[in-house]
């Protein structure tokens, strides 16, 4: 960020720039979504590098930035089960890793893995809400009953909220949790538009 050369001990960011972004990484809330940053530059570019350019190093950085906010959310809701958004096996093999699981590993979090049945295209490519719902219908399977549990769904970015809605449906087919909390590293402004379109 500051264009200074990194020392041997520094990793992706110099100590000063790292601390600036760590201080900005606060627990925020909007209409059912806990998040740390809005999905805008430079966060947008860093997430893109992380997911699509093989820069797995960013997973460790994101985890360090969100650590306090994540655990505060878990304490506040007495979370018992954490579930990262799953990616389809074909996509995992192509990418080499599941970006949400990678962050949770750096956070030292034990998690339950749901199955993703459909290898869908990124939902932000579709402007029609009903079209996204059709494409995501029955996309997930939850093999475990979470009856009475406090559950946290985790993603690196929530763009429209459709994925989270479908994950909730899959979970509730197996049993009714006490609560389902959504926590994401970054939240798209598009979520606000989706909420308004749903009449919320």
Side-by-side strand order of the widest sheet:
1-2-7-6-3
The averaged pLDDT comes out at 88
Largest sheet: 5 strands, mixed
SSE topology string = HEEHHEHHEHEEHEH
Fraction of residues in β-strands: 15-25%
The percent range for helix content is 40-55%
Straight-line N-to-C gap: 38 Å
The shape, in one word, is: globular
Instruction: Report the total helices.
Output: 8
What would your notes on this structure say?
The protein is built from 8 helices and 7 strands, in the order H-E-E-H-H-E-H-H-E-H-E-E-H-E-H. With 200 residues, the protein is of the alpha/beta class. The strands form 2 sheets. A 5-stranded mixed β-sheet has the order 1-2-7-6-3, with helices on both faces. It has a two-stranded antiparallel ribbon with strand order 4-5.
Keywords:
two-stranded antiparallel ribbon; 5-stranded mixed sheet; alpha/beta; 8 helices; 200 residues; single chain; 7 strands
Brief summary of the model shown:
The protein is of the alpha/beta class. The chain has helices spanning 15-24, 43-52, 57-76, 89-95, 99-107, 129-136, 162-174, 190-197, and strands spanning 28-30, 33-38, 81-84, 115-116, 140-141, 150-158, 179-187. The protein is globular.
